[in-house]
């Protein structure tokens, strides 16, 4: 049965961030994820996890100047020292929060910049990140992101991400399969899940969901999530599925899809 983690960056925005943990626990979630924890001491977040019996599934390494428009450091030439420092910070948080998956964002590339140079830097930084994370028993995941939501993002396709992981060859480097981004960029979700779930030296380390095209609850739109949940189960995926969507109204009021799934023991049917 799929295990769902609430994404506290997108969900429960009707609460202050530190109060979203208890709100998610009241709704029955057993795990959470979010983009960035760095505005808070890790001990404060750990207290929220422990007090609400929640597991930390995932968060992102520092992305550079997010408010200034940056979306990751890993592929950016000339920022290698900053990237290494960002990994030190992220792994310090992961050791305290207890998660074993860490998302490293690639960053943006302008049309006039060299893709070959960005790729070379990206591979070196990912190899470094995987090596740094290995002693902490953390898996680094990289995520292809659609260019409608994030124009200029370096990594967009699942096959490209899998090829990069295979080329580096680190056992703790995998792909984050976001169904929303993949549907917008490529489609053919079921075929790609079957193709990539069991890959050697790569594979799928984390899954996220949202309705397409508007990134709301996964109960409407063009993706048949009940079918995909059954498929993910059949492929033996045992990790968390992050609910990275924007609720149409109140978060709790929009969880009918999840309540139906839990009560029936089967995927929600629309």
Automatic annotation (TrEMBL):
Top-level lineage group: Bacteria
GO molecular function: hydroxypyruvate isomerase activity
Signal peptide from the UniProt entry: none
Keyword Isomerase: yes
Keywords in alphabetical order: Isomerase, Pyruvate
The Xylose isomerase-like TIM barrel domain, residue ranges: 21-260
Catalytic center residues: 143, 244
Family matches, as InterPro entries: HPT_OtnI_isomerases, HyI-like, Sugar_Epim/Isomerase, Xyl_isomerase-like_sf, Xyl_isomerase-like_TIM-brl
GO terms for biological process, alphabetical: glyoxylate metabolic process
Family: Belongs to the hyi family.
Protein name according to UniProt: Hydroxypyruvate isomerase
Organism: Caballeronia sordidicola (Burkholderia sordidicola)
């Amino acid at each position: 049965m799929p295990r769902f983690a609430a994404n506290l960056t997108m969900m429960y925005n009707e609460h202050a961030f530190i109060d979203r943990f208890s709100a998610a626990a009241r709704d029955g979630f057993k795990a959470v994820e979010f983009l960035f924890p760095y505005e808070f001491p890790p001990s404060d977040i750990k207290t929220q996890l422990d007090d609400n019996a929640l597991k930390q599934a995932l968060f992102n390494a520092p992305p550079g100047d997010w408010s200034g428009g940056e979306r990751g450091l890993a592929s950016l030439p000339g920022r290698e020292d900053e990237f290494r420092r960002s990994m030190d910070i992220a792994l310090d948080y992961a050791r305290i929060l207890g998660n074993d998956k860490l998302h490293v964002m690639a960053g943006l590339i302008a049309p006039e910049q060299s893709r070959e140079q960005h790729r070379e830097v990206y591979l070196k930084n990912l190899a470094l990140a995987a090596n740094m994370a290995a002693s902490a028993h953390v898996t680094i995941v990289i995520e292809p992101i659609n260019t409608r939501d994030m124009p200029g993002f370096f990594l967009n396709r699942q096959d490209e991400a899998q090829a990069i992981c295979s080329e580096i060859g680190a056992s703790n480097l995998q792909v984050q399969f976001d169904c929303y981004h993949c549907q917008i960029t490529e489609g053919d979700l079921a075929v790609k899940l079957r193709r990539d779930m069991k890959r050697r030296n790569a594979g799928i380390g984390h899954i996220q969901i949202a309705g397409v095209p508007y990134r709301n609850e996964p109960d409407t739109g063009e993706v048949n999530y009940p079918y995909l949940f059954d498929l993910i189960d059949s492929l033996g995926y045992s990790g968390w599925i992050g609910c990275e969507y924007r609720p149409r109204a109140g978060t709790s009021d929009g969880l009918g899809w999840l309540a139906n799934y839990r009560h029936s023991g089967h995927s929600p049917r629309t």
